[in-house]
Every structure is written in structure tokens, then in C-alpha cells.
Amino acid sequence: MVRQKLATTASSGPLLPYRAMRLTDFHYELPDDLIARYPAAERSASRLLCLDGESGALLDRRFSDLPQLLRAGDLLVLNDTRVVPARLFGRKASGGLIEVMIERVMDSRHASARVRASKSPRPGAELLLDGGARVLVTGRDDDLFLLEMSEGPGFPALMEASGHMPLPPYIRRADEAIDRERYQTVYAREPGAVAAPTAGLHFDEALLAAVERVGVSLARITLHVGAGTFAPVRVDDVTTHRMHSETLTVSAATCEQIAETRAGGGRVIAVGTTVVRALESAAATGTLEAYSGETDIFIYPGYRFRVIDGLLTNFHLPESTLLMLVSAFSGRDNILAAYRHAVAERYRFFSYGDAMFLHPPHPSAGR
Fold this sequence. Notes:
Mean pLDDT: 92
Low-confidence stretches: 1-18
Oligomer: single chain
Shape: globular
Distance between the termini: 23 Å
Structural class: alpha/beta
Strand content: 25-35%
Largest sheet: 10 strands, mixed
Order of helices and strands: EEEHEEEEEEEEHHEHEEHEHEEHHE
Helix content: 10-25%
């Protein structure tokens, strides 16, 4: 039976004692020219910084070296969400230009979205979107607008015909033809994300095959990444931050693969923070089980991981919730030291940048 519930913040999950945390505890300096604004020529050609959470030791490798860093019996867990071209442009019926970022499609005629305009539209306002759609603003829920398409092909068809790939704001360029392929994992299946699970962008079909040849298995979850993943933390005491909600599915088959990996002595390695959030949400009761629903889980230092033994991840923004998550897994001091090393060695940062392979400070973490 698949559970359907809301997984909540780490404050209601398993916590270890930890001192008060301030936003500045997760700051680091990053030169602007290290932000990757285009992908590497080949997916698996990115660099890979390996961090041993026990010793703090760092090792500079290539992502294509990954099969050498894994062991027979390990399990890689992938997020198979597919990014949709969720950015739409148009104008208000009153004339002002707008940008609409679809956050979630409820059905072909109804969606929630973030709307950028010189002046926020009010409920009852009509939006005229490129592609010939007329959309009515029916309400607002915090920073999301509720939209109803009164005329046009429906939201999924409109996005496919007239939408743009929703590149992160720090890339600071318009999307291009290359982004339709490269801002998407090669194993993407389930449409619904408005941001890519970027750790998976480094895999190509050849590397996935090479991983399987060394005896590593693959499992999949689905977590549809929302635009809120880029929302800044606006509180000084990070424990009071509240996360946006995202939809996810962890199947019974994936739970069985994880159990079999455990029984055989293998490691469960998450490909990306979205996989971590999905698996930890599915284990919120203390036991990993099939899960389908929403999660707003917030993982920060002090969290006791129940499922994973390793994490492949990209570099994350200063003072971001994702930096807090990896700090929880491998230790804040270790992570910040690794980031200083990455800056000194001129690694490429963020969505189109290089990657890290993280191990926890204690071998029992996630067990």
C-alpha cells in the first residue's frame, strides 16, 4: 500500500543535538566567473570532487571515474522527473508585460504559477499569453497565482508549443536550443519539474552502462522539483525557515531494491538532493515504505539520515537550503572547506557546473 501524506520539516523528524544556526553559518565567497552558464561539451566530462566525511579528505577526480569509485552491490537512486518548458511570456489585458512560471498543472485548464510583472495581477485579471491563450487569475496562495485557461490549447500543449526552458536565475541568459536537451537528464521520464535534478545531468547512456557493468544497480524515484528550490532563505535563524512543497513518488519496487542492497552489504547512493528529500520523506515514520504525495521536508545539520550512505550532488548557492542539506550529511566544516578548495581549483558551480561525491562522517549514517 502506498502512503499518501505530507512529510514535514526536519524539526518533526529525527534530530541530533546541534547549536543554534544562523544564515551566515552557510556563507562562502564565490567569484562570478565560476558560475557555469553553459553545460560542459560532454555530460560525463565534468569534474568530481570527492569528500570523505570521516576524515575531511578531498580527492579531485572526473565524473567519468565514477565506476571506479563504486562497488559491486551498490545502488544508485535516480530522480526520473522531466523538466517541462514552464516559462511563458505575454501581457496583461491592460497592457503590461508579464512572465509566467508554471509551478504545477492541476489539469489541462488549471495551473498554479509565479507571475512577474511591474504590478502583480489581481484576482479576476486576464492574461494574454504567447501562443494565443487567454488565462484568468482566479486567486492567490502566498506567492503562487491560481490560473484558469479560458481560451487556448490547455497548459501542457501551450508549454510544449510556446514555453521556454526554466533556467535558474543565476544563469542570467535566455534559454537556447541546447537547453532543451542538456537541462534534462538522459533518464527523464515523468514530466512535471520546473527545475532539473542537476546531479543527474552528468550521466550519459555510456556512463550508466559502465556503472551497471561493475555490478551497481539503478533505482528510480520521482520528485517534481519546484521553482521554490531557488527561493532564498529570508530568516536569520535557519531552523524557522519553511520549505515549499513538492510532489513525489517512491515506489514499492524501489523500497525493495534498497532493502536488498542493505541485506547484501551494499551502499545506497542518492543522485542529487531531490532523491535525498524523497527517500527521507518516505522514511518519515522510521521505516522506508512506498510513498506518494507531498513533501516540504527541510534537512539541516542535526538531522539523522535514515536511508542513504552516499550522495552525488552539484555545488549549491551560498546560504541555500541545499547547502544546509549537504552540510547535514557530511558536516558543515567539511563542506565549507571543500567549497573553498573547489573555488581555489576553479571548479564550475551550480546547475551546469561540476559535481561532488559525498560520504557521511560516520559509516552508520543512514542505517
